[in-house]
User: Fold this.
Amino acid sequence: MSRAAAALLACAAVLLPDGRADAQPRFGGQLRGVLSLAGVERTRADLTAQLDGTLIGLDGTLRFGMFELGGRYLEGGIAQGDGVASQDLVDGELQVRVRPVRFLAIGFGPHARSYVEAGTERWLVWEASAAMSAWLVRDVLRSSIDLRLGLGGSVNSGAAFGAGRSVAGGLELRFPRTPIFVGVAYSVDHRSLADDSRIDTVEQFVVRAGVWP
Amino acid sequence: MGRTLALAAAALLAWSGTGSAQDPATLVTRGIQAYDALDLAAAAGLLRQALAAPSEVGITPEQRTTALSYLGATEFLRGSTDSAEAAFRRLVTEEPRYVLDEVVFPPEMTALFARVKRDTKVVQPAVPPVARFQAGDPSYRPELIASSSHQIIATVNGSDGMPVRLLFEGLIGDSLELVWDGLTTWGSAVESGRYYLRIESLGQDREPVRVVRVPLDVTVLSVDTLAHPAPPSDSLYLPERMQGGPALEALVGGLVASAGIALLPSVVASDASLSGGRIAVAGTVAIGGVVGYLMQRPGKTIPSNVQHNDRIRQQWRASVDQVAQENARRRDRARMLVSAGPPAVVDLEAP
Assistant:
């Protein structure tokens, strides 16, 4: 486990006993539709390729008091600019989170990404996350930033997993007196093999719309 | 010999008078006998003695009115009209409805009595000794008996003498039934305490010539009233002005997220060539933070919260008013117990 991962878990341990979480409904959740303009920069043996495409999927959260269960599923096609090399990209994750204070959620869970071409190359990363959010306008406008660190992982090609980290942030606007909200976000996800023979950087501009009961 | 007999009779009369002081009824009988025998001096003496008897050995009201009527007649026959009028006036005052028997007394005498009765403005109240009724119900009905037709004012006064309710103002004929519902002039039930039923007989110039008052002890039987609702808890109120927290959260949250979006991707993927589009997202978040700060800057009034708090206050005031009205209604419909004391004539000459 890397030093950063240990620090992240230590932060979680410190924050867990904090009982100052703001009063929230005991049960709740969110469901969002996600449209992502994705760009994958893939470096393999000093050769870099750029694959772009559009992903579409769902993103949801269930909340039980201070605990949350989050999941996301996206799929779509990516291709190089000339269209010669196209792949399907399937991205899914599951996270268990705890929200010790209103503005912070700490989580852990698997994050799988598959590139489907002739065969399927699957990356599975166990990620720890720290997501911070703040109300810019109470109950209307909220900002968030989500940092993730891969604590371990595997690739089905047999190559040794190296590292994974990502950052995502954005803004969500809830229409007053409705449960409907829309949002924009930007994220970068960086994964590499142990020998750096393969590095994938997935950059996404995301538009989200959903129900916020 | 005749003189001796007269002295003996006088002595006997004196002796019998002394004895009759212990038996006023006998004095009345003997006075009437003396009147019938035209022994007017003896009749006057005997009747006065009977009327002056102490109350504990006194005569009945009927014997008293008889004694007064014969006393007036005696004085009339003796030529003392003033004394006759005084006796008749006293009779009318004590028994306003009394009528001199025209069979027994001559017309001159009954005429004098009628004149005295007409000129004497007296009202005698007949009040129920104890009455129970519900406030608001016109159930308390004292009766007034008048000697002759005249103007009166009937009020219920407080113990301080101030009228709390006017019951009647006008002409009384032979009699009049007053009605009181236990309420004041302003429509609320009187509180427990001592009150007076005051009847003022007015003269020609509407000046009071005689005032009678009857003490009324009013007891308002217990009323189940509702407790006033407690004021809303402070926790129900929302802050009416922006605190520093939301503004700070907006500014810090916006700027931190903005900085994170702008800078952290370069750290996360230092060797990748990232697009500049993230700057647009970061800028949007930063602008959102600044706008949020300006919208929620400390001290700014929050109209929705002001409305919310006003609504809570109004609801509470409405519930307090409702309870107050209900309690007033219950109090105004309280059961009352009124005990009347003996009527007393107020001395108008007293300072």
Q: What stands out?
A: Residues 62 and 309 of chain B are 76 Å apart (CA to CA). The first strand of chain B starts at residue 123 and ends at 126. Chain B touches chain A at residues 246, 249-250, 252-254, 256-258, 260-261, 264-265, 267-269, 271-275, 277-278, 281-282, 284-285, 288-289, 291-292, 295-296 (CB under 8 Å). The longest helix of chain B spans residues 303-332.
